[in-house]
């Protein structure tokens, strides 16, 4: 990262022990603008001509809200040659994979969400566009570095075409690089509805987790578009409850016992209270649905979560309490590090409270171990976060001084 010259010079890092904790970033974003020449040229001629006459017509209902920053990204994420943040894989590699010595990173496209939902465009165009996005990802990003992995863009409201795309990618030459499928959390029907069973069955067959990510073109929040950027930013978790309730109470995990779900950039502190509420509701009316286990048990065994945006209470000890509650509920192996690169609220490994960074076993699980187990990605030997520093909150190497999601220095 670029060091702000107005900041005080960082204290030199203490001696390292030589051991490192492997890092896998579970949420990295290529450019949010999917309509770039590299993508469009992979469309069939029919749909290229269609775009000339119609455009994408993929704006969110009610219009988009003002961004906190242009592209909602870090100022220094614009490549030297220009263009949107996340457009240049080599520059992203230098700023992220190399800067933090990562083993792997999962690319989650969200710019195509309005089209993936099949709104305001023909179904065949929606499928062709998702396929073009995936082909571009293979051609440009996968070819750049073997540490880039991807989430498959799907026309998820058209299940038969979505299944075709899953098969195309997993049976293709880059099948092992596709480690997830990407869905928006505001689908036309609850995700447990039988409409989506073919997609869920295909994901279970290939061992592909389903990733739900904030932002889409159908509903910005559960109650309509927000007027302010931070109004929406604080509402993200509102989309979580119906997704999980549908998956559990529709019996999805009984029908597809191998299915895995990742809630990406949707928070994690809310899930334990939700599980309590769902258990209580099920005990009150157990005959309304047919489940083989308590809702909390499905949540514990089938759901994963990412760290960004992280909870940042005024008293750091409260964070420890919230994380301890999460882990003691049986989910210590379900929280995965995510940076949200290149967005403005990017989190680096040093964004974690010192209490977490000092616990090497716990920190190792979060930084890379949990994601490695979910996605089947190797932790490269001798890479990652050096064990033994920072021993004090202010000891952060010069190359890693940045801002946390609340804009503070990441020295804690």
Automatic annotation (TrEMBL):
Q: Which residues form the Amidohydrolase-related domain?
A: 24-377
Pfam families linked to this entry: Amidohydro_2 (PF04909)
Amino-acid biosynthesis listed as a keyword: no
Keywords noted in UniProt: Lyase
Question: Protein name, please?
Answer: Amidohydrolase family protein
Species in which this protein is naturally found: Pseudonocardia yuanmonensis
């Amino acid at each position: 990262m670029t060091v702000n010259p107005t900041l005080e010079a960082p204290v030199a890092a203490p001696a390292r022990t030589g051991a490192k904790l492997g890092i896998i970033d579970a949420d990295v974003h290529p450019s949010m603008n999917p309509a770039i020449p590299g993508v469009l040229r992979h469309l069939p001629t029919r749909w290229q001509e269609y775009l000339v006459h119609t455009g994408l017509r993929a704006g969110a209902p009610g219009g988009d809200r003002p961004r906190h920053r242009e592209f909602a990204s870090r100022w220094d994420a614009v490549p030297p040659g220009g263009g949107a943040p996340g457009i240049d894989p080599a520059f992203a590699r230098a700023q992220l994979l190399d800067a933090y010595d990562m083993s792997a990173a999962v690319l989650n496209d969200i710019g195509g969400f309005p089209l993936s939902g099949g709104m305001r465009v023909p179904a065949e165009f929606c499928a062709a566009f998702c396929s073009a996005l995936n082909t571009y990802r293979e051609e440009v990003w996968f070819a750049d570095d073997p540490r880039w992995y991807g989430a498959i863009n799907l026309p998820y409201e058209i299940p038969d075409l979505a299944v075709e795309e899953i098969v195309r990618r997993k049976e293709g030459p880059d099948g092992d690089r596709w480690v997830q499928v990407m869905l928006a959390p505001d689908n036309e029907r609850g995700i447990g509805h039988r409409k989506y069973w073919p997609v869920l069955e295909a994901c279970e067959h290939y061992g592909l987790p389903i990733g739900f990510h904030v932002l889409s073109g159908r509903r910005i929040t559960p109650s309509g578009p927000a007027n302010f950027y931070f109004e929406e930013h604080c509402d993200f978790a509102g989309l979580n409850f119906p997704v999980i309730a549908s998956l559990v109470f529709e019996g999805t995990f009984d029908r597809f016992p191998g299915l895995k779900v990742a809630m990406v950039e949707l928070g994690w502190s809310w899930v334990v209270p939700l599980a309590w509420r769902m258990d209580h509701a099920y005990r009150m009316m157990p005959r309304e649905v047919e489940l083989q286990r308590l809702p909390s048990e499905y949540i514990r065994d089938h759901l994963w979560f990412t760290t960004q945006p992280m909870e940042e209470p005024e008293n750091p000890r409260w964070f420890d309490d919230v994380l301890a509650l999460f882990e003691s509920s049986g989910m210590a192996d379900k929280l995965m590090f995510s940076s949200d690169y290149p967005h403005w609220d990017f989190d680096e490994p040093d964004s974690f409270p010192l209490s977490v960074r000092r616990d090497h076993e716990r920190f190792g699980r979060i930084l890379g171990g949990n994601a490695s187990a979910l996605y089947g990605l190797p932790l490269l030997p001798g890479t990652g976060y050096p064990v033994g520093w920072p021993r004090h909150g202010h000891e952060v190497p010069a190359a890693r001084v940045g801002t946390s999601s609340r804009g503070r220095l990441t020295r804690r």
